[in-house]
Amino acid sequence: MKNSKSLFSLLLCASAVPSFAGQSIQAGPHAITSATPVPNTPANRVEFYIHDWATTAPIHIVSSGATGWFVATVPLGAGNVILFIYNTWEKNPQLTQFQIGNLPQQAVYVRCQHDPVNKVDLLEAWDSKGTRIANITVTYTSETDSGNDFQIAYGNEPLVSVGFMRVQSALVPLNSRPPVSSDNTARVLEWKFDGTLADSSGNGHTAVFNGGIAAYVPTPFQNTVATIRTPDANSWANVLTQRAGFPTSLDGTASYSQADTSAAANCLWQQLSGPSLAQMTARNTCTPRLSGLTFGDYKFQLTAIAANGSTATATTDVGAVAMDNKGVVVNADPN
């Protein structure tokens, strides 16, 4: 028997904490470079957010000897804009391309990871609502790391707005939380462009705006995003079928806020329907334990609450079936 209404509802009183709305710098007509050499970083993660790009001609987004990455937007026609990415360090690099011309909003978050130990590049992109739109793994055979430069745009190019640009020395697994406006981990360089060209990492790599005066615009779509996962989520799926009759959990730790001050989000869970009343511990934690699942489909809802009081909601169906201890589905005896 399924429940048509919410089985549980927790009330949360959250006082809104003011947060500074971020700014983006307008690049393209003017190049942005680093005032000091950027350390050559063999294992690197480059993350950035761009929006409101012109579609009249190509725009160089990243050109960096310090990380090897080369990224550019290339318009090919109405509603057809490709983001080209490759790593210049590699011998015979593979050119990767993402379609960004048909997004609901003209805004995209991008993560480029270079892993020299496993000789692989991990490339991902998300739209403004946190939906992953691209996931590509590229292998290579050899490379030559060289350079200490980092540059946005070449100058005399069409306009693009850059919300942030960040170089980090720590890699993350595929399908991790998307790049966020506030992330202080393992930073080599971070330009947040909140009315300033300063390097927020504290490493002194101040940006230089070449040939003019820097212009800033408000950063759009700094959303809160709720994401539901099961504990066995992998690089291509967030929710997998669970084993009936055995305890499991839900995971909301991939939820986040794009606010400039903090990416943290609190969690509030509800069970909306299901064949039984699942027992859930600590509904206001991001990783509640579940027990009492029987065969069938359960629907759960997660509300993510950011530090500034903004919220987002996600729902998902979690199936429960009989399995053995190796995860193989056990069929009922027809006799």
Query: So how many helices?
Result: 0
Compute the number of strand runs.
24
Helix content: under 10%
What sort of overall outline do the alpha carbons produce when their principal axes are compared? globular
Determine the strand fraction and express it as a percent band: 35-45%
Would you tell me the structural class of the helices and strands? Answer: mainly beta
Distance from first to last alpha carbon:
25 Å
Give me the Rg, rounded: 22 Å
Low-confidence stretches: 1-20
- Look at the structure and give the mean pLDDT: 90
Written description of the protein model:
The chain is an all-beta fold and 335 residues long. It has strands spanning 23-27, 32-34, 44-51, 59-63, 69-77, 80-87, 96-99, 107-115, 120-126, 132-139, 151-152, 160-168, 187-191, 207-209, 216-218, 224-225, 242-243, 248-249, 256-257, 265-273, 279-280, 289-291, 296-306, 311-321. Strands 1, 3, 8, 9, 10, 12, 13 and 15 form an eight-stranded antiparallel β-sheet that branches. A four-stranded antiparallel β-sheet has the order 4-5-6-7, with no helix packed on it. The radius of gyration is 22 Å and the shape is globular. Residues 1-20 have low confidence and may be disordered.
